[in-house]
Queue: 3 jobs
Job 1
Amino acid sequence: MSYMGKPYYPAWLDNLAEDATLEGAAMEGAAHGAETVRSIVVAARALYEDQQFSYAGPFGHNGFLEVYTTPIKGKPTGVVVTVTRNADGKAQHVAVSHRPTSSMLLFSRLMGEKFTGSPNARYFTASGS
Amino acid sequence: MSPSIETKATSARSGETTEHEPTYTGKPYYPWWLDNLADDVTGEGAFMEGVAHGAEAVRSIVVTARGIYEGQEFSFVGNYGDNAFLELYTTHLQGKPTSVVVTVTRNAAGQAQGVVVNHRPRSSVLLFRRLMGEKFAGTPIAKLFTTGES
């Protein structure tokens, strides 16, 4: 993954609040807790085939925004991530949105498959649904 | 376009607060970019399949979307980066709580060049998509809401 031609790693992923939450267009409900949020984000990143960031930086006083594209199973996908920080500077809330609809549903299905048998599966669509 | 939304937009600009009117920090809010779209602006979103092209199409979609929203409570509106604008808000769709992230990129003339609107959770995306498909039934825009789920 790269941003402005250089390797990029989301620092917030290693700085999650203990009670961090994660939501998304591909999810139903909010995931709670740093371990759960990190697990979902790490699994998502494994599905991304080539993240090309057009923006990664602050917004407002306590927000961080990522805008990137990536293929998912070869399908072009746009992604917008908002991260809000708490008073300690830790990532408190993460929201991730994929587009278009077919990419969002594909991503949800693939995540559901990855988490089959785990509590995290409930946020995503079941295979074939 | 929806006359009711145009009325709301006008009242927002005049500073009056009415039921279901968009608000930011307790005051009426109207998105500047909606009246400043580039001729070749594009519109995308999680609820769409493909890209809407042109100011008329994008404005029609956004105005119609605003007609579906049951109130808009903005938690952030402002610039990011050198040429872009972000809106974060919550709304209800047929009573269902929904969060929305909007990114707007500007061209060199300061006009909105690319608009991306993403709803969550997934059920809200699909509900909104269905409602938009119904609103645009029989028009070329409908295909943006009726393909891509298979």
Job 2
Amino acid sequence: MADYIVMPKLGLTMTEGSIRDWKVKEGDPIAIGDLIFEIETDKITKAFESAQAGTLLKILVPEGVVKVQGPVAIIGQPGEDFSALLPKDRAEEPIKPPADISPVAEPGEVTKPAGAKVKISPKARKLAEELGVDYTALTGTGPGGAISAEDIEKAAKQPKATPMAAYTAQKLGVDLKEVPAEGRIRQEDVERFARPKEKPERESMSRMRQIIAQRMKESQDESATVNFTVGVDMTGATALRESLKETAKISFTDILVLITARTLKDYPLLNASVEGNEIVYHGAVHMGIAVAVEEGLMVPVLRGVDTMGLQQIAEETAELATGCRDMSINPDLLEGSTFTLSNLGMFGMEAFTPIINQPNVAILGINAIIKKPVVVDDEITIRPMMNLSLTADHRIVDGAVAAQFLKTLKERIEQPALLLL
Amino acid sequence: MKTMTYGEAIRAGMTQKMREDDTVFLFGEDVGPFGGCFGVSAGMHGEFGELRVRDTPISEGVIVGAAVGAAATGVRPIAELMFTDFVTVGMDQLVNQAAKMRYMFGGHLKLPMVVRLPSGGGIGAAAQHSQSLEKWLAGIPGLKVVYPSNAADAYGLMLTSIEDDNPVVFFEHKALYGVPSEVPDEMERVPLGKARVAKEGTDVTITTYGKQVLDAMAAAQTLAAEGVDVEVIDLRSLYPWDKEAVLASVEKTGKVVLVSEETKRGAYIAEIAAYIAEEGFYNLDAPIVRVGALDTPVPFAPALEQTMLPNAEDIVNAVRKIL
């Protein structure tokens, strides 16, 4: 019994998904668990595993957005009549270029049906043979519509091209006369010629990119951003990490997540949101951690991180990052942050101005740890230094508050033991 | 350059040869003191006398037969028939005797005779005095056939026709006799079998002869105003005819209109058309078009006669048909 394959609901907030990259063709057998297409939501891209077995009878949506539970394909037994499942107003097959496009036929001219007798003067026929012009598709301008020698000469001046080359040239606005080719111009010759002169290449944004673009712009429209930078001596944090090396695999990010989370408890204004004329203090710290993935940026959320220890932070962060990179993450884990960390240290950045991840009111940029000469007790000494780049929303976070937050953060990173007080 | 009428040029040619060669003589109905029905031999009787410019009875069989006999004896007769139409009466002498003699006597005999045939319509001479019948004679092995269109060619062809050792049928268009045209100060022989490019052009070849050369030139002028560059070929000789010239022109233009005053049905130009189709087929870029007279006797009523005969407008229309 033929049935629909429908757009799954991958997360609580998912309302629609975008189909792309079908892995199977119509007529292919499908087993339960087979990957049959990819779904892009506003958060992730995920391969869809079939929950049904059978034969793919019809792809209803080769590409594009489908509402959750909307049909995307029909599965059933080979040869089964599935016409009842077809939408009534289904669009016809995509229009293919006609096979008999002639390089010389004028647009709008009626091409002769195949096998029709071609009216051509003897001179024109001889000329056509000499010049290698296929006159069967020409429209004659001679007496009685016969193809004349002049018609052949004109056609011969047209470069010889395959029908697909002519079609492609027309599509790309390429003059076939300018296309260099050995012998007959082929489609790839036209494409190669067109490439350097092509208009800037255009590509539709992925759903993720659209969302990122939209969110970033919205964020800049929403927040009154102000940026702060402070240098931090990482000697203490390095020592801490070293001291735990035998016990747990802890990264600087993990240490910074913990210290930042704990410090945010002391500065609730930075762990807040603005809703209309109200400030919403979130209390618990749900730390968004920006993760770069192939297609853009994802911000998984470590929930309740202010109560976590370093090991838990390390484990959960690693899990979230992996989920993001292989797109296996539950979309619900990508929502609900109260503050965000963005680490560009691995790229050697020393300062940047991160954009606030709405509805947060601050984001902390983490930079590279670089050994620098610093003055300690009036002595020039070499210390592993790192800058923190804070972007805060001045609507509620005044400079003094932000500066105090950063100052405290700096002190605690430099002396992690302070957290134990 | 000077001008001379067609009739004067024919007379000048005959006179020239008669002055050079006293075996040349002219005879026919009223060619003597009367000077010929159309005045072509006017004054010749006075210059050459009774023996060399002779009137004959009204008997075309006799006229042509006498020419054949005289030529066989070694002299060079010029026989004039008053109208081409009456060649019917002399046909046996012309076709069965004149045309065959050299062949049947194994070349031991020369037959240097010219038969002048005033031809064509347009002068209100009615059905029995207006015909164009070159098709009858151009297809007879043993006869050479010429048909000049202008004074210079008429003169030049007259010299070579008289000098030729074979019977030559010399067509003259009655409507051209009084038509002047430019001739060089030193008029020259026109070789038999050589056409003349009356006007060079690239788009269409009009191949014709006789009076229709004038019509073709008028048509070419009309068409030139439309941007059509017409080439006009004046065949001059209908047999032998200048195949090379015609084929070369067809090769150049790819289109050919053939014009004759004969009724189109079975006209001499059909031979040209057939030859082009055989030998120049792959140079043809359009169907061959023939322009001829309507398929009827030549009417007496002038309006009908003008309708029946081909004219420049007909040629223009024919050319337009294949552009």
Job 3
Amino acid sequence: MDWNRQVGKRQLGPIAFIAILLIAWQIGVSRQAVHVLPTPIQVVRGLAELLSRGLLVKYIVASLFRVSWGYALAAALAIPLGLAVGWNRRAGLAINPIVQVVRPISPLAWIPISILWFGVGDVSSIFLIFLATFFPLFFTSMNAVRNVPAVNVNAGRNFGLSTAGLVSKVLFPAVMPQLIIGMRIALGIAWLVVVAAEMIAVNSGLGFLIVDARNAGNRYDLVVAGMVMIGVIGLLLDIGMRSLENIRSVRWGYSED
Amino acid sequence: MTGSVAIAKVKIEHVGVTFDRDGKSTHVLNDITLEVAEGEFLCVLGPSGCGKSTLLNTVAGFLSPSVGQITIGGEVVTGPDPRRIFVFQERGVFPWLTVEGNIAFGLFRLSREERGRRIAYYTKLVGLEGFEKAYPQELSGGMKQRLEVARALAVKPDMLLLDEPFGALDSITRLTMRRELLRIWESEKKTIIFVTHDIEEAVQLADRVVVMSARPARIQQIVNIDIAHPRDISSPRYLELRDSIFEQIGIAHKI
């Protein structure tokens, strides 16, 4: 009972705040003679229109499709590579300078090259998402391995594990908590980049919706509707990733102690 | 002073270890020669940072000696081996595995039935029944240390190498753990090398105490503790042996 009441109280604040903001937005905008923003009601109508035309679901699926591919490819490459480089000091020293130079280049700077290589379409935006998430995942994995206590590795060797056994039974579980955090941050970045990637390269998706709604008749209600959907889906993705941190075999990695 | 060694289980012969770091070389161990008997409880005692852990690490095979060699049961030590399990100072248990999972860690070659039997037996031996599904995070320091001992014993090693295993525990738990370790040593008949900087601990536990000098460590003295277990820690003989080691290390035993 007590617990329920507490949760209720904790949610009351944010809900009230959002309600106040929406009302202020509605009142503020409707008093203006010039068109600065659509009102919240117009945005909701816009969302309903998109839904009824079947575009909302289609665009969300398209965006998620690109993110999934770019992110999955980056994870499949960056995580094993990062783990290997973190494990092998010499490989780390060799690879580090190149990685440090490539890393600060914004993925958006790659747009012309990705169009040159892959043309205008899905592959280009998947490539941009891949680039954007590769480095965070790579660095997380590399650092996670370096932070594995020598005690754990020595214990693994002491019990007679082969190298493969050491990787799967000690290294991998030991890096998991840090890896999950890195994957969560990387997914957030992927979602940021998909919008930018879709603005130039494709004809579907939430990023496309925003540019297209502006170009095709200044439909700012749809622009804001697209922004709201991006925010909501980004939040849901993050909640999904965060739930991984509750798995019992990784929870030790997040304790204060 | 040196006790005659019945059957030498471990032979440490003229072992020296030098670390090279940033062009500077540090001499950590200097010409250590020592034999440990089968079934013996040997304590290595010395000031912090003297290199006693380094010695234990070379016996375990985590480090190779720069000079000299170590043989165990006639074989030269070239790397870690499940027949001699190292019990670490702290946080040696795997935090991602339950109590059960930790004890089963070294048992991957056994059948499921045998594994189950060993888990049950060693959980009970160290008094962790009822905590099989608990994660180390949920255990106290003393329980974690007992879990690590159980994990080590479960693979039935000939030897246990303990590196200040009770250093991080409070003094009451530490006393209990010493008693537990002696009980386990007597029932399981392992050869034990126990590294500590605690003089009392060494005299309470060991058959022989090897007193090390400051770095580069060499053996300063070997003291036979000729008192039967359980030891009365207020007996004249106990105090005499303890005080002789205090003097040897050069600390006045008055506060």
